[in-house]
Amino acid sequence: MPEHSPAPTPHRAIYGFAFYLLFTVLFIVYVAWAFIPLELGLHSYLPDKYFAVFIPFLILVFAWFFAFLIYPAINLSLTVNVDSIASIVDPKLVLPKGEEFSDWSQLKQHKEKSIKSKISKDPINCNLCGTIHKPIDRPPIAPLRFMDLRDVNKAYYH
Q1: What are phi and psi of 124, to 5 degrees?
Q2: Mind giving me the DSSP string for 11-64?
Q3: Residue-wise DSSP of 86-122
Q4: Residue 154 — pLDDT band, cuts 50, 70, 90?
Q5: Spatial contact of 49 and 37, defined as CB atoms under 8 Å apart
Q6: 110, 116, 119, 151: which sits with the fewest CB atoms below 10 Å from its CB?
């Protein structure tokens, strides 16, 4: 089975050209109906000329309603609440699998556990000076997306 691609195929090209011709003919018939006076006795079979202006206007009104009212309303209904923690942090990226995320204190506890497990107490050989250094006991600065503003100010400005 061939892989699907947007590249034009002969089948697609034939249908595309047929639709192009169809809509060109329909547009010419629409413009002719809108501008040519019908005194040929066919006026009882054709709609009123009022619809030549009303139908495009109606389409534009529906497009406006969709673009400025319905589409934003759908997006707002799918967006997480502002008060929800999921609007700030993705719980699946922060906590281990199976653990539910409820508040910031749980995030801080998990962060402290991970920092304590990463700190090593082994001495480090320095290649520059040739001496053995003890590691610094302070925890590394956490990524900014998981810190409160007070912690950021304390870490960077004090």
Answers
A1: -115, 130
A2: HHHHHHHHHHHHHHHHHHHHHHHHHS---SS-TTTS--THHHHHHHHHHHHHHH
A3: GGT--HHHHSPTTPPP--HHHHHHHHHHHHHHH---S
A4: confident
A5: no
A6: 116
